Amino acid sequence: MNIKKECREAALRYLEHRERSAYEITSHLTSKGFSKQEIDEELMYLKELHYVDDERYCESHIRYAMRKGRGPLRIRYELKEKGVDEALIQQTLRQYFNRQTEKEIALAEATKILERNFGVSAEFENEILIDEKIIAKIGRRLASLGYESNVIYDIIGQLRR
User: What gap in Å lies between CA 156 and CA 11, rounded to an integer?
Assistant: First the structure.
């Protein structure tokens, strides 16, 4: 089998299960021992066919991460790890997140924590006394999900009312 065909098959197998960024494809093919020229040619071919599209990948990842309750800081980090261009990340995050959206998703996550870990029903969360231990757990969880501190403080303030 010729090298070009091997490179293409390796790239297509790697794309078989989920969408990948150009950086991920390049890293994978490099680890398989293909030359930079072979990888560049294959990447150009995959982009022409729209099998690899970092803009689409970025949007798809943001929608997925939002469904998982992740905040913009964590999403930005994850996309940087996948080699997506910072300018593209910023631009796409602005399309999906504004202050209100971020607060709504963070509040939904805080409510899940109350329901899952403490048996507190969402309808009654304002009628009970939420102790500092629970507040701290919610704050840590929201921070780990990638929410900005001002959003976390707003949510905690809302829960304390």
Answer: 46
- Compute φ and ψ for 155, nearest 5 degrees: -65, -45
pLDDT class of 125 with cuts at 50, 70, 90: very low
CA distance readout (Å), 79 to 41, 76, 108, 144:
24, 5, 23, 16
pLDDT at 72 over 70: yes
Secondary structure letter of residue 18 according to DSSP:
S
Name all domains of the chain by residue range, CATH numbers in brackets: 3-48 (1.10.10), 54-96 (1.10.10), 99-160 (no CATH)
Q: Buried b / exposed e across 8-22, counting CB within 10 Å, b at 16+?
A: bebbeebbeeeebbb
Residue of 134, 130, 138 whose CA lies nearest to 154 = 138
Average pLDDT, the chain: 90
pTM of the model: 0.85
Contact 19, 41 (CB under 8 A): no
